[in-house]
Design a protein that fits this description.
The chain has helices spanning 2-42, 47-52, 64-70, 77-108, 114-123, 129-142, 153-156, 165-176, 181-188, 193-204, 206-222, 225-230, 239-243, 255-286. The chain is mostly helical and 291 residues long. It folds into two domains: 2-66, no CATH class; 75-286, MetI-like fold (Orthogonal Bundle), CATH 1.10.3720. Helix 11 (206-222) runs antiparallel to helix 14. The termini are far apart. The model is unreliable at 5-9 and 285-291 (pLDDT under 50).
Length: 291
Amino acid sequence: MAAQATAAVGPRGTGRRGLLRTLVLVAILLVVLYPLVWVIGTSFKSQEEIVSNTGLLPERFTPGNYTDGWQHFDVSFTRFFLNSTMVALLTVLGNAASCLVAAYAFARLRFRFRRFWFAIMIGTLLLPQHVLTVPQYILFKQFGLVGGEWPYLPLLIPQFLATEAFFVFLMVQFMRGIPPELDEAAKIDGASAYRTFWHVMLPLSRPALVTTAIFSFIWTWNEFFRQLVYLSDLDHYTLPVAMTLFIDSTGQSSVGPMFAMSVLSLLPVFLFFVAFQRMLVEGINTSGLKG
């Protein structure tokens, strides 16, 4: 009888704990989604209602904010979207290619002072990015790359030189988890270091590459300070810099169109993350030792 009572109470207690966890997760989800829902609702409010109505949903929908925001400046927001997309995709390409090569050298190759240079690279993570802004600006200014015909070069060149120590460290740690017997088997088959990298390490490093691509795209898409420093022409502005134009020098602002463009600027990041997250999961499930 006691065993039957325990069996009867056990599932009920488990069900209550499961219900409690579900309620906690739903509460956390509501807290996390509240700012996003508020921004979307505010993008459909008029200028007067934004000041008076602090609720989530507008009393009177104003979809014209999206049209007004898209054509608010002399340059269409299409140009800003294209500029941000170009800079973000080239940054993803540069970080993925350069950091992968550097990580392969640190993780697999043997050369003098390898640990010393790796420690120096890790030490750069301790430096705030703003500390490096002035020296980098002076360097690019001396090279004639600031304000040139293609002002995006100061933003892109460092990405092709493996300057993102975080991604190099991430890939090094991932490669160290790949069995070294694969390299030895490739050497026995007569493969050089280049062929080993191309045919062995590169396919197995797909999860690390996808992670690098996701974070590179999101960080570059949302980056503001460096883009503000190097971009001075309206035609070259990216989305984060263009958002500041909704507030002019007199203090007047077009809040409704600004929130509308903010909502649209979130869509590429969301779609990019969803697409590459699927690839990340597939890469983790399918990568490994294959005959």
